[in-house]
């Protein structure tokens, strides 16, 4: 799978090799001051203030690095089995969260699918999306470049900014969902004592604080965050499994059922595939000789196992709504309240478990919060001058405000937002993987990541991206719009936007890229 790589000879810069980095202890404990933000104008007052701020971050052992490439000599020198295990634990902690439990509820509660249909669609959808995210993650050690900066090698300098904007919307949208679910749970634990709004703010502040510490704090937190989550989710399974409805069939005629299956499959695929635009961000400090197969496999397993546990739990809870009046009443108050109701037999300890579930959303929120700070910098050279920590703060303010405004419409946000975000990622991946094929012999010049003159012009990628979106719109099935082709399947349509968008972009891009290479030479 690995292409030949043309690396700039950056390891000859003056930097002592005895500064070893081991992710098992300190994944990013060395950051030369001149690497914090090289684009800051040294002579300007603003540049001087930003430089001083970054030095303060370094003094407190926080990560000041933004989108700059991590050169081979700046990475971990030791790669142990714990380093590989970290890839599994990171994704397992991120996804073993309440937002994925509420995602599973949509199968029976919104699409009218049986437990079996919902579970099969969810598991296979997650596997498909996770394979994409795992493949993209392997480019972190190879390139040392953040995911969206790596996207410049396929989309070009200017079109890649569109992708960055879409990814920012996606990441902040996921943070919004996490905050609302967490707020609902905390509010349900203390009815009348704690509002959903206060719960949202609590989740947002803690997530922002962890992300601010940078990649070292992020990796350390995710290494252990899964432990309480795993315990309480197993307890939730034990308490509620006997109330899961395993016998009721899916609702509707055969064509409608087929359409609903495809739509739920698409949502679950979208939930997993949307990690791909940030999955390489967390492994840029791994050395170049990191095994891509091991990193791919452990990332895939971590994603699939955690998604499956959480989503199947949610499917079970959703299936029992129709037969359990207390569950139905809780669901009308919000998906988070249904999770709290599942712990109700344990009384006080059940409320404690609910709080643990809510706080577990922090692990899921930290990842997009951290990556959003990096992606803001990719928007332009002036944006790059602003330290990542400040952009993290801006992102946290945005998703907190949006969560407070949309806290009463979580189900609608879920069903519309997730699938819509999956469309652009599927189209982008089609272009990304075909550009990889084009570069199979020549490889990538990683030193050119910030040089527009050495990157593709991006016309081929932009046209293919637009064509892919046309296909996605024609085949999308959302509450507010059902495409003409999607209407042909069942009463409510079938969401085929991911697959048609991917295939149309994949068909259009190769001939356009050949023409671009012939006439532009890059």
Summarize this, please?
Keywords: Membrane, Phosphoprotein, Transmembrane, Transmembrane helix, Transport. The protein is mostly helical and about 525 residues long.
Quick tags:
single chain; 522 residues; mainly alpha; Hydantoin permease; 22 helices; disordered N terminus
Question: How would you characterize this protein structure?
Answer:
The protein is an all-alpha fold and 522 residues long. The protein has a domain at 80-409: Hydantoin permease, CATH 1.10.4160.10. 65% of the residues lie in helices and 0% in strands. It is built from 22 helices and no strands. The longest helix is centred in the middle third of the chain and has 31 residues, at 159-189. It is globular and about 65 Å long. Residues 1-43 have low confidence and may be disordered. GO terms for molecular function: transmembrane transporter activity. It comes from Penicillium oxalicum (strain 114-2 / CGMCC 5302) (Penicillium decumbens). It is a multi-pass membrane protein. Pfam families: Transp_cyt_pur (PF02133).
List the helices and strands and how they pair.
Elements: H1 45-59, H2 81-95, H3 98-109, H4 115-137, H5 139-143, H6 147-150, H7 152-155, H8 159-189, H9 196-212, H10 214-224, H11 226-240, H12 254-273, H13 292-319, H14 325-333, H15 335-342, H16 347-359, H17 361-378, H18 381-385, H19 388-405, H20 410-438, H21 459-475, H22 497-520
Helix pairs in contact: 2-10, 2-13, 3-13, 4-12, 4-13, 8-9, 8-15, 8-16, 8-17, 8-19, 8-20, 9-17, 9-19, 10-17, 11-13, 11-16, 12-20, 14-15, 17-19, 20-21, 20-22, 21-22
């Amino acid at each position: 799978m690995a292409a030949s790589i043309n690396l700039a000879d950056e390891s000859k810069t003056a930097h002592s090799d005895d500064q070893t980095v081991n992710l098992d202890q300190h994944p990013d404990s060395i950051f030369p001051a001149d690497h914090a933000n090289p684009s800051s104008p040294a002579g300007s007052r603003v540049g001087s203030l930003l430089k001083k701020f970054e030095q303060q971050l370094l003094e407190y052992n926080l990560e000041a690095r933004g989108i700059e490439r991590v050169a081979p000599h700046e990475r971990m020198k030791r790669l142990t089995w714990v380093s590989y295990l970290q890839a599994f634990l990171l994704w397992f902690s991120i996804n073993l969260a309440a937002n994925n439990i509420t995602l599973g509820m949509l199968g029976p509660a919104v699409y009218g699918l049986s437990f079996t249909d919902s579970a099969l669609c969810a598991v296979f959808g997650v596997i498909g999306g996770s394979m994409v995210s795992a493949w993209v993650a392997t480019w972190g050690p190879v390139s040392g470049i953040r995911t969206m900066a790596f996207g410049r090698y396929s989309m070009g300098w200017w079109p890649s900014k569109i992708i960055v904007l879409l990814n920012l919307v996606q990441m902040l949208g996921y943070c919004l969902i996490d905050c609302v679910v967490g707020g609902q749970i905390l509010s349900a634990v203390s009815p009348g004592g704690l509002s959903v709004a206060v719960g949202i703010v609590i989740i947002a502040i803690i997530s922002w604080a962890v992300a601010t510490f940078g990649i070292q704090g992020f990796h350390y937190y995710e290494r252990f965050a899964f432990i309480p989550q795993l315990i309480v989710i197993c307890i939730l399974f034990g308490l509620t499994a006997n109330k899961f409805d395993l016998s009721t069939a899916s609702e509707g005629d055969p064509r409608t059922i087929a359409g609903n299956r495809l739509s739920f499959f698409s949502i679950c695929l979208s939930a997993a595939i949307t990690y791909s635009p940030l999955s390489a961000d967390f492994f840029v400090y791994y050395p170049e000789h990191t095994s891509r197969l091991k990193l791919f496999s452990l990332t895939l397993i971590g994603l699939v196992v955690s998604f499956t546990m959480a989503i199947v739990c949610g499917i079970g809870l959703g299936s029992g709504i129709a037969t359990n009046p207390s569950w139905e009443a809780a669901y009308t108050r919000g998906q988070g309240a249904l999770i709290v109701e599942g712990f109700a037999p344990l009384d006080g300890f059940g409320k404690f478990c609910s709080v643990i579930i809510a706080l577990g959303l922090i692990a899921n929120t930290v990842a997009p919060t951290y990556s959003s700070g990096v992606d803001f910098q990719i928007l332009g050279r002036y944006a790059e001058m602003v330290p990542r920590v400040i952009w993290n703060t801006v992102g946290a303010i945005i998703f907190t405000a949006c969560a407070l405004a949309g806290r009463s419409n979580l189900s609608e946000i879920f069903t519309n937002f997730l699938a819509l975000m999956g469309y652009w990622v599927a189209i982008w991946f089609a272009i990304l993987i075909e550009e990889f094929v084009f570069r199979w012999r020549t490889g990538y010049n990683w030193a050119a990541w910030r040089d527009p003159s050495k990157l593709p012009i991006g016309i081929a990628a932009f046209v293919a991206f637009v064509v892919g979106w046309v296909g996605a719109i024609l085949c999308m099935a959302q509450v507010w719009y059902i495409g003409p082709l999607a209407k042909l399947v069942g009463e409510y349509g079938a969401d085929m936007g991911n697959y048609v968008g991917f295939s149309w972009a994949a068909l259009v891009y190769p001939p356009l890229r050949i023409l671009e290479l012939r006439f532009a030479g890059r």
